[in-house]
Specification:
The structure holds two protein chains of two kinds. Chain A is of the alpha/beta class. Helices cover 33% and strands 15% of the residues of chain A. A seven-stranded mixed beta sheet of chain A has the order 3-2-1-4-10-6-11, sandwiched between helices. The longest helix of chain A is centred in the N-terminal third of the chain and has 22 residues. Chain A is globular. Chain B is of the alpha/beta class. Chain B is built from 15 helices and ten strands. In chain B, helix 10 links the parallel strand 8 and strand 9. The chains are: A alpha/beta, B alpha/beta.
Chain lengths: 377, 416
């Protein structure tokens, strides 16, 4: 339609005039593996990435060899994807899983290094929720940026205490810890980066999840990869402009087991650039939710062979059976309802307005409208 | 600028434009220069080019009226009050009437409001007449020219005809005493009794702070194709339909109420200003009078105005090239509005948006307090300055008398 073409062009012009100038490619790194909730999580990330208005490369690192399941999922995105496998199986304990994911992300960084991909690296874990503002904000990063992430660790399973149990902690602590479920950089009054705000886990530790599929809440570690972004040139080989505080790749790769966050790539943690209004804006929500370890789901969520009937329907409308009278009269009644609803979109709203003049008009216009309808019918 | 070919082409364009006196444009990324029939005059500074003397009228003509109803400061006719305030402290003001080029009479004729806030014009002719009688008897300057070097602000529906109903306004015609004066009014229509030659058309008043406070980020994509909020039928005053807006608004509604590209309704949402900033086209059809604050709102919010008012004369028409900014649709073509708007080439649309984005354009539509350079106050002064120096016909020769002091309806002659 011509009008939509016009609107497209107008919006493109708006973006080029007022949007971020000189935007860089976004390189999203997502570790994943096939399990019940994979489709749920990956679809969420996929849709977020599909809405990013910049060029994007999506690196999906899959634990175990690459599977068709994952491949078919990510191919629906229409994005430029790099699907690489990582030779390991996802362990059952969360601690071990976090460690493996770190190694998988590091593997993705190696891929970026080898292919010399240029852009801003974002760690888009497959169960996190990303705001689109994040992708606009990270365009401002020079080398390493950090922003605040919200931790979704509300515990709602237990019947005894459905709320935060931090109340118990009050007598133990001298200094009241911040209760905000946020992990991110903190600045002083002159907007200089001075430190980190970590999520206070102490209240949860007794009841946090230990293995994947555990009913309890999953806690983040001290520093999560998701809260950082990197300039991909930081991991390039022989990059002239690399700052002095960047560690050598080989040095980090040797101790890959110790790599817990992108901070491992830096000699000096203070060079991190705080983003999002100096950490005042939460740009991403961190969540880990998995199905029970023994849950089963059909491969690719395609039901084959067809399901057997578990509960017979009371009235199944078979095509050869004649329609019963009460059900057909129902159908007749709905049709005029639908047609009436459309034109009185404005009429019903007018009735609600308070000005007396408008009420008069509403009556006459409804007449206009309904006479039209009667003519149509 | 390493592209020599581009430079050559620009030079070629400049050469051609200088010889053919065509519209000169500068390839700035965001905005385009505005050049009207009077030339590149939006940027002109009137200070130093004219002197205005303000008559001291008793406060019953201005201050007392405003005290009775402060709503006059916010309605669309408030220009008459703000112009007075601006002139009082402007450098163009002179306290010496002998050196004045123009004489201003501060009389607020549009401040007698109904409980609903609509101005009643019934006493305005008498009020204006009373003011003119005062200045002609207390100062010699009126009689010197019979008002030809005087200007008046008459922002009401049909300006100096002082009536809200067009038929009655035409019947009355321009107040006889103002026949020689320069009128500054919002009403403008070609070949109409209520617009005389040499008048200055101005935009209706729109509160600048209120409009600023509703700005949204310019990155917000414009996703509405056509936007309009307002009446389509005026059942109270035109129950049968057909008179209000000469049927143009009714035609808009009937033709496009189901068209998904047209976001039109009579609702007045709280996000009205924000919605205009998300629209590509904003309809500005005539109502009982051809002008409306919608035009000002559309310009401020960068929405291309679609003007549906035959023969309308738009604000500062000699300074602003409205054809380059808005789209003009004849009232009879309203049923084809969708085809007309979709067949505009997209480059043309982008160009119009660029002109609209020019801050001078937006500034010229507003009456900010305190006044700012190139705002509507200054454009009015520019318009007055362009009429200088006064021609010989302005000054009466001995024995000349043009004005008929007893002309007009008998009711007008009663003292105010």
């Amino acid at each position: 339609m011509k009008a939509h073409g016009i609107i497209e062009r107008v919006q493109a012009e708006q973006r080029s005039q007022y949007g971020v100038k000189n935007h860089r490619t976004v390189i999203a790194v997502t570790p994943t593996y096939v399990r019940t909730f994979q489709t749920l999580h990956l679809t969420g990330v996929m849709h977020s990435l599909m809405n990013v208005p910049y060029d994007l490369i999506w690196i999906v690192v899959e634990a175990g060899p690459t599977t068709n399941e994952t491949a078919s999922l990510i191919s629906k995105s229409g994005l430029k994807t790099i699907h690489i496998g990582f030779d390991a199986k996802i362990p059952l304990l969360w601690d071990d899983r976090h460690k493996l994911e770190s190694r998988m992300r590091f593997h993705a960084l190696r891929e970026i290094r080898e292919k010399r991909l240029d852009g801003i690296v974002v760690f888009a874990d497959d169960s996190n929720m990303h705001s689109l503002e994040l992708f606009d904000e990270i365009q401002n990063v020079k080398w390493v940026g950090a922003f605040s992430i919200g931790i979704i660790a509300q515990y709602s399973g237990d019947s005894e205490e459905g709320e935060y149990t931090i109340v118990q902690r009050e007598d133990n602590s001298e200094k009241k810890p911040s209760r905000l479920p946020i992990q991110g950089p903190v600045c002083n009054s002159s907007n200089h980066f001075v430190g980190w705000h970590a999520f206070d886990k102490a209240a949860f530790v007794e009841r946090s999840a230990r293995y994947v599929g555990d009913r309890a809440v999953v806690l983040p570690r001290e520093v999560e990869w998701a809260g950082f972004v990197l300039n991909s040139r930081l991991v390039w080989e022989e990059e002239m402009d690399k700052p002095v505080w960047a560690k050598e790749w080989e040095e980090v790769a040797r101790e890959v087991e110790e790599v817990e966050s992108p901070l491992a790539l830096l000699k000096d943690g203070s060079v991190v650039e705080p983003l999002g209004g100096c950490g005042r804006k939460v740009l991403l929500w961190w969540l880990r939710v998995e199905a029970r370890a023994d849950s089963k789901f059909p491969p690719r969520w395609i039901i084959d062979p067809p399901l057997e009937i578990t509960v017979p329907a009371k009235r199944t409308p078979w095509p050869d059976a004649p329609p019963e009278l009460p059900s057909s009269s129902e159908k007749v009644v709905t049709i005029p309802e639908i047609t009436e609803r459309r034109p009185t979109k404005n009429g019903s709203k007018r009735k609600r307005s308070s000005r007396s003049k408008k009420k008069q008009r509403a009556k006459v216009i409804d007449e206009h409208v309904s006479t039209q309808n009667s003519r149509d019918n | 600028m390493r592209d020599w070919r581009w430079v050559f082409i620009v030079l070629l364009y400049l050469a051609i434009s200088l010889t053919t006196e065509s519209f000169e444009f500068r390839r700035t990324q965001r905005t385009e220069r505005i050049s009207g029939s009077a030339g590149d005059v939006l940027e002109d500074n009137p200070i130093g080019r004219l002197k205005v003397f303000i008559y001291e009228l008793p406060s019953k003509y201005n201050k007392k009226i405003l005290q009775k109803d402060p709503r006059c400061l916010t309605h669309m006719f408030a220009a008459e009050i703000y112009m007075h305030r601006f002139l009082l402290s402007s450098p163009v003001r002179t306290l010496n009437p002998e050196e004045a080029d123009w004489f201003y009479t501060p009389v607020y004729t549009t401040c007698d409001l109904t409980p609903n806030g609509l101005p009643l014009p019934f006493k305005s002719p008498r009020m204006m007449r009373s003011a003119v009688q005062l200045i002609s008897s207390n100062w010699p300057y009126w009689n010197r020219t019979e008002g030809a070097d005087h200007f008046f602000i008459v922002p009401h529906d049909f300006g100096p005809c002082f009536h809200y109903q067009e038929e009655k306004a035409i019947e009355r015609g321009i107040l006889p005493l103002l026949e020689r004066a320069t009128l500054v009014q919002t009403f403008g229509q070609k070949n109409h009794v209520c617009l005389k030659d040499g008048s200055i058309t101005i935009p209706p008043y729109a509160p600048p702070q209120k409009m600023q406070s509703h700005l949204i980020p310019p990155t917000t994509p414009r996703s509405i194709f056509v936007y309009f909020r307002g009446l389509f039928y005026d059942v109270g005053n035109d129950p049968e339909g057909g008179y209000y807006a000469r049927g143009a608004r009714a035609s808009m509604w009937e033709n496009f109420k189901d068209n998904p590209l047209f976001d039109i309704s009579t609702e007045h949402p709280t996000t009205y200003y924000e919605d205009m900033q998300r629209a590509v086209f904003c309809l500005c059809p005539l109502g009982w009078a051809p002008w409306s604050p919608r035009l000002v709102e559309a310009v401020i919010y960068g929405c291309i105005p679609v003007i549906i008012a035959d023969d309308i004369v738009l604000p500062f028409a000699d300074a602003i090239p409205w054809e380059d900014i808005g789209v003009f649709v004849a009232e009879k073509d309203v049923p084809n509005l969708d085809t007309i708007l979709t067949s505009i080439h997209v480059d043309e649309i982008l160009r119009k948006q660029r002109v609209l984005a020019n801050p001078s354009m937006k500034q010229a539509m507003l009456f900010p307090q305190p006044a700012q350079p190139r705002d509507a106050f200054h454009q009015i002064l520019n318009g007055l300055a362009r009429k200088l120096p006064h021609g010989k016909s302005v000054y009466l020769q001995s024995g000349d008398k043009f004005l008929n002091w007893t002309a007009g309806p008998v009711g007008d002659l009663k003292p105010w």
